[in-house]
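A further point concerns the way the authors explain their paired sequence and structure data. The central task, working out the structure tokens from the amino acid sequence alone, is never made concrete. I therefore recommend that a typical entry be quoted early in the introduction. An entry of this sort, consisting of the sequence and the corresponding backbone structure tokens, reads as follows:
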Amino acid sequence: MYIIGITGGTGAGKSTALKALKSLGALALDCDEIYHDLLLNCTEMISEINAKFEDVSTDGKIDRKKLSEVVWNDPISLQELNSITHKYVEQDLKRRIGEFEKLGGTVAAIDAIALIESGQSDNCNFIVGIIAPQEMRIARIVSRDGLTVEQAQKRIDAQQPESFFVDSCDQILENIYDSQAMFEDKCIEFFNTIILSEEKQL
């Protein structure tokens, strides 16, 4: 199994890169989606979060809005949440990759903002960092999540700077494109080269 890690800050274009890899036949694993699924269905993780953070549940379920307001306003709280959730996300990733491999799959892609910090990058054969100009990221976050410019900026500020990804990844893709389709085409071309190169070595 050849595993490609995709990382970068929010609004940079990681989801588009993951979509491109899925179109090439890779197992596409979005850690945000996995985390949100676990928030609904993983009783062990839910219990740990409720024990650590007060008043983040509504009618017995984790209220994502309340939890987000807590962690995005406090870097320490964000680190504490990540220390709880990363291990559950990693377990689910391993399960999904194992099932895909049994079906004959050979390439998987993991999209995660904290791919490197969580240690999940150690399980990847190749790591790609997605970066983009800050003003473009803010515009995408505002449009995608319905946040104010100030809220979008706060989310960016709570994450790693661009230099972190430049220094930590095997390759960088810069998303300076006005349309998602244009960046997706670029990603397909880029990742297809990587996959074909790996297949030749097998």
About this structure: The first strand starts at residue 2 and ends at 7.
